């Protein structure tokens, strides 16, 4: 067979040039890694991808002494070093090409962590590589690759510092909700001698607190909680305001097993103080943590309901974050080393300034305090529309009946229909309008409260005595949409922006003649809220509609525009009639209240049984307009009017 000879070597000019450049760079001590498949950057990129994924099998790894390391061990150590940040691996970016010095390559990597609240923590680290005998680049692994201050066994940990929660302010700029003393009532399991008796005694004591706690304290699950707790644990039952605790202290202090911790919690001036409107501030609940795991942690204070809930992010501000290093101590427990690697200072919350007036709100709450039925009272300053008070009586926690109720207004709506009739010239103060015992429209019979009749009397008397049949007879003079037009001129059905939810009313329009007759005195399909009626009453007193205002800062983005000026002659006559309601009509129980009180009573049927009625009173004195509502309150003179009297007597006389 023929012999094979090696071909003569012929130098390649390009290789000869590259070799010359390499020699020159090595002489200088540094070589920038090229981008070919055999360059160190390929290994760096594979290492960074494996760091994030937790799979480093594609990367050769050695320790600083050159010993090979199993990829799974390094992946596990990276996860351990990451500690509390392990669930969100960092974004890793190689900066430029590796620099090579003999058999060692060094590359800069940006490590960028995303901490809770989308906080960015970024820094640069160096990754070193060694060129092995197998012509492959291997990553030199050591803990400081993750961070320069980390050593073997360390862990990154997060310390979270909540920001100072801002206050909800009153109209004078003073905090409504401030730290106030409370007593945390609890049970220590190993000190209880008779759990069944203890539960019974605690339940009786809590029910004896006045005014009654709303919602009440439920101790039904206390035996189960005590059974599951550690023997020396403090099983909290309820946190009571200091004044409530002192009422029942003699009954519960010496009960075997009870324990007490004094504390301070952000609270309003009183337990009832604008409770539903303001909402509450409590420790984060399970549903808070589940819905916003990136926002809340156990122990955080969170706003629930009302303004506290709606503006929670503004009020709570931003928590501070500190990345610290922890290290196992004796027994393996992790303890801080004192090293802080990153810090973001807590951001205090921003205050919420409202129009609420403490004295007026206290008067409103006091007026409702003795009423066992669901009730509400809204007060508005006539001169500028500021909501001074929004009180709610007993009812589900967080229910803001004052703003959200959708109920018939009853005869308080005669204020609206009278304005419409006066605007159309259909009635005058002294023009006679027959007040019959009954009045029938399309087969539907209407009657007056207690079946009274007045005969032919001046219209002002029909209004003051609240004659339903007179208004039913006048309904055709309003036309199909006259009542709705009058209501809208007073702001009803408007697109109000108060910075919180509110129902502005729905006024009956069109419909059958019987529906129009019913709507003329607040029955039929017309629905309102106490806030809507207080706003309408303030508009009559002012002479034009001005949207009620609740928030000053932040100011609502789109408040309703002010209404047109009401006809002076119409509102003058209407005011005269509303004054006569108090001096000689259904609101005469208020005639000895100091100052000039104007108003209109209302009894509203809410189902097909005429005996089932809500009670209303709307009116004003001085610069304060208000609406009182009592659900299933029966006759307004027996419930709403006395409530209005308590409210007015508690206010300074204008």
From TrEMBL:
Belongs to the transpeptidase family. Pfam families: MecA_N (PF05223), PBP_dimer (PF03717), Transpeptidase (PF00905). This is Penicillin-binding protein. It is found in: Membrane. Residues 161-331 form the Penicillin-binding protein dimerisation domain. Residues 377-646 form the Penicillin-binding protein transpeptidase domain. The keyword Lipid metabolism does not apply. InterPro entries: Beta-lactam/transpept, Beta-lactam/transpept-like, MecA_N, PBP_dimer, PBP_dimer_sf, PCN-bd_Tpept. PANTHER family: PENICILLIN-BINDING PROTEIN 4B (PTHR30627:SF24), PEPTIDOGLYCAN D,D-TRANSPEPTIDASE (PTHR30627). GO terms for cellular component: plasma membrane. GO terms for biological process: cell wall organization; response to antibiotic. The keyword Ribonucleoprotein does not apply. Residues 40-154 form the NTF2-like N-terminal transpeptidase domain. Keywords: Membrane. GO terms for molecular function: penicillin binding; peptidoglycan L,D-transpeptidase activity. It comes from the Bacteria.
């Amino acid at each position: 067979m023929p012999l094979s000879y090696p071909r003569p070597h012929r130098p390649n000019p390009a290789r000869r040039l590259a070799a010359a450049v390499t020699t020159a760079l090595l002489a200088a001590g540094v070589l920038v890694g090229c981008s070919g498949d055999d360059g160190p950057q390929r290994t760096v990129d594979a290492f960074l991808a494996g760091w994030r994924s937790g799979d480093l099998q594609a990367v050769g790894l050695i320790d600083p002494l050159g010993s090979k390391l199993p990829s799974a061990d390094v992946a596990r150590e990276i996860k351990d070093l990451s500690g509390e940040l392990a669930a969100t691996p960092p974004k890793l970016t190689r900066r430029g090409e590796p620099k090579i010095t003999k058999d060692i390559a060094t590359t800069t990597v940006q490590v960028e962590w995303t901490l809770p609240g989308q906080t960015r923590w970024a820094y640069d680290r160096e990754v070193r590589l060694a060129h092995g005998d197998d012509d492959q680049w291997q990553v030199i692994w050591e803990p400081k690759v993750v961070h320069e201050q980390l050593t073997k066994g360390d862990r990154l940990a997060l310390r979270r510092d909540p920001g100072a929660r801002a206050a909800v302010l009153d109209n004078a700029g003073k905090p409504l909700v401030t730290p106030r003393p409370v007593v945390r009532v609890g049970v220590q399991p190993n000190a209880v001698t008779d759990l069944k008796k203890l539960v019974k005694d605690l339940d009786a004591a809590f029910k004896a607190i006045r005014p009654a706690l709303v919602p009440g304290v439920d101790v039904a699950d206390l035996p189960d909680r005590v059974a599951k707790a550690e023997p020396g644990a403090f099983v909290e039952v309820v946190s009571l305001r200091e004044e409530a605790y002192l009422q029942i202290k003699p009954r519960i202090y010496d009960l075997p097993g009870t324990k007490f911790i004094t504390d301070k919690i952000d609270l309003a001036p009183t337990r009832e103080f604008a409770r539903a409107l303001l909402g509450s501030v409590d420790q984060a609940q399970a549903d808070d943590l589940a819905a916003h795991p990136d926002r809340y942690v156990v122990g955080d204070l969170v706003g629930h309901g009302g303004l506290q809930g709606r503006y929670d992010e503004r009020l709570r501000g931003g928590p501070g974050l500190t990345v610290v290093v922890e290290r196992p101590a004796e027994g393996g427990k992790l303890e801080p080393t004192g090293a802080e690697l990153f810090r973001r200072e807590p951001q205090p919350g921003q205050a919420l300034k409202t129009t609420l007036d403490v004295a007026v709100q206290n008067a409103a709450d006091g007026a409702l305090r003795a009423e066992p039925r669901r009730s509400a009272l809204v007060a508005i300053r006539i001169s500028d529309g500021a909501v001074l008070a929004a009180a709610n009586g007993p009812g589900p926690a967080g229910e803001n009946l004052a703003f959200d109720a959708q109920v018939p207004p009853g005869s308080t709506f005669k204020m609206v229909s009278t304005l419409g009739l006066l605007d159309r010239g259909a009635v005058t103060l002294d023009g006679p309008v027959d007040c019959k015992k009954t009045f029938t429209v399309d087969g539907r019979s209407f009657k007056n409260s207690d079946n009274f009749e007045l005969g032919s009397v001046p219209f002002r008397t029909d209004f003051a005595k609240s004659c339903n049949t007179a208004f039913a007879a006048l309904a055709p003079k309003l036309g199909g949409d006259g009542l709705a037009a009058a209501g809208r001129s007073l702001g009803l059905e408007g697109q109000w922006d108060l910075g919180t939810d509110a129902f502005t009313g729905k006024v009956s329009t069109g419909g059958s003649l019987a529906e129009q007759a019913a709507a003329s005195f607040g029955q039929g399909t017309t629905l309102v809220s106490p806030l809507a009626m207080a706003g309408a009453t303030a508009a009559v007193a002012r002479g034009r509609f001005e949207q009620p205002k609740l928030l000053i800062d932040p100011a609502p983005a789109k408040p309703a525009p002010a209404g047109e000026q009401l006809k002076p002659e119409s509102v003058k006559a209407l005011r005269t009639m509303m004054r006569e309601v108090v001096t000689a009509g259904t609101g005469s129980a208020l005639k000895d209240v100091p100052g000039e009180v104007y108003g209109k009573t209302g009894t509203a049927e809410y189902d097909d049984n005429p005996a089932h009625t809500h009670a209303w009173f709307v009116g004003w004195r001085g610069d304060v307009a208000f609406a009182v509502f009592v659900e299933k309150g029966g006759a307004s003179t027996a419930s709403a009017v006395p409530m209005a009297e308590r409210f007015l007597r508690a206010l300074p006389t204008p």
